[in-house]
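User: Could you check the structure of this?
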Amino acid sequence: MKALELSKEAKDQLAELEDLSDKAANGDKQARSELRRALRASSPAVVAEASTLAKKGECVLIRPPRPASL
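Assistant: Sure, the predicted structure tokens are below.
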């Protein structure tokens, strides 16, 4: 089974968003505007991939148990 993880591109986008978020939280006004721009640009792709990942994870978690050997 393929490991459940985000693509490198999604991870990179999330890392960029986290960095901008940290800067904005520390009062960097330019980072706040860059964060808004980056969120608008990357949200659909990141959300779609994370949603797909969540659905795959859910399927793994709700797989019916195997019957016990007698």
